[in-house]
Amino acid sequence: MTLPYCQEQIVPLPSFLRAWTVESKRPGKLLRNNKQQLNPHELLLRVQMGIPGERDYYDSTDLVWDISKECTTWALRQRVASHYCLPVDKIEIAKYFPEKFEWLPISSWTQQISKRKRKKKQESLQSAPYHLKDGDIIGVKNLLLDDSKDFSTVRDDVGKEKQRQLALEKKKSRQAERLQNHVFSEEKLSVKHRKPEVALSINVGIFR
């Protein structure tokens, strides 16, 4: 509460704050305790709406999602649509993987699930490939204003290019190291097989 940032935000009491661990300069695990207002069966996600016509998003907002009944694509779509007061069939959502600068769409509305299949237990979003957890960023597209299915941003393009350049430099470095080791091995082998030098003596007869 004494930090300058908190004073600027006018936080009245510590109970209004949420504490997170920081992993890779980003919020990691949400710290919970016995006095928590968030229950163990609730996920705290960061949802951000895409800006129509732009490859960018409005500021993210916290979304508390009760997963006690189910943690499925259908349930999340309903929760996000309700949060933004939009029809379920007029949104698209995706999870952001910041370490890869990639967005993974969370099902498409075109892949509708029949009522019979919906009764079956669907796979939880907390398992592969989404591994949904507290603090995850969920991008949202309002199809009423923007029919683009591209969730990526310019920042993602820059991040991917940096990763590509870094991977290329590492590859060149490994190739140079392998070449150097090969040359060193060849030189070592050449020295090993070289016969030791022997003094050469020539007897010349005496001619008078």
Radius of gyration in whole Å, from Cα?
31 Å
What is the CATH fold-level name of the largest domain? Ubiquitin-like (UB roll)
| First-last Cα distance | 113 Å
Considering DSSP H and I runs of 4 or more, what fraction of the residues is helical?
Answer: 25-40%
Number of discrete domains: 2
Which percent band covers the strand fraction? 15-25%
Net shape:
elongated
By CATH, the architecture of the largest domain is named: Roll
Class of secondary structure makeup: alpha+beta
| CATH class assignment of the largest domain | Alpha Beta
Features:
208 residues; alpha+beta; 4 helices; 7 strands
Ordered list of secondary-structure elements with their pairings:
Layout: H1 4-9, E1 20-23, E2 26-30, E3 42-49, E4 61-66, H2 73-83, E5 91-97, E6 102-105, H3 115-119, E7 137-142, H4 154-193
Parallel strand pairs: 3-7
Antiparallel strand pairs: 1-2, 3-4, 5-6, 5-7
